[in-house]
Prior knowledge:
The complex is a heterodimer of chains A (108) and B (123). By secondary structure, chain A is mainly beta. Chain A has no helices and 11 strands. The relative contact order of chain B is 0.30.
Amino acid sequence: VVTQEPSFSVSPGGTVTLTCGLSSGSVSSSYYPSWYQQTPGQAPRTLIYSTNSRSSGVPDRFSGSILGNKAALTITGARADDESHYYCALYVLSGIWVFGGGTKLTVL
Amino acid sequence: EVQLVESGGGSVKPGGSLTLSCADSGFTGFTVTNAWMAWVRQAPGKGLEWVGRIASRSDGETTEYAAPVKGRFTISRDDSKNMLFLQMNSLKTEDTAMYYCTTVGNPAFFRQWGQGTQLTVSS
């Protein structure tokens, strides 16, 4: 099972780090963690792939990393329009992915 | 610019069948033909769930499926028409979701997304 914080809040202009873990074991770059942003009623938007590569057009306020035994998505200079659901996905076997349950980020 | 457009969603009774389609209305003949493709779904008020994927023709068009749909769903592609399909049989109420098709980027991520097509399974 891929685990994410159910919810998180950040102040405008602040920095927040969301994490993506495994219920048993550690996340490493070999899981090719990726991150997706989704606002209500919209299709997901790809933010980060292969741990720390930004997808085309994604501002450098978004960054990915491995922190300890988890993948992490850090948002700096949080803006009101960053308020969304954020999902991580792990490539767990050849051709098989698992998504985390998602984190609802509130900017207030 | 790649634009994926899903179609074929609708309402079906439990036990029924339906086939979803995904067309690339962007670079004709490139995106679907040369890419691994995947389906991801999202039940109402829930998170994203990977459904399955199909490799490119050059990689043998092999398929993999998530456990909840294995044996009931089949992904196929028609590169001559730049199309991706999801055939769904023995549908259950828990299959009710928005279904998104995606291209699979290298390495191992969902690069482009369609806007989704809604499936409702209800008696």
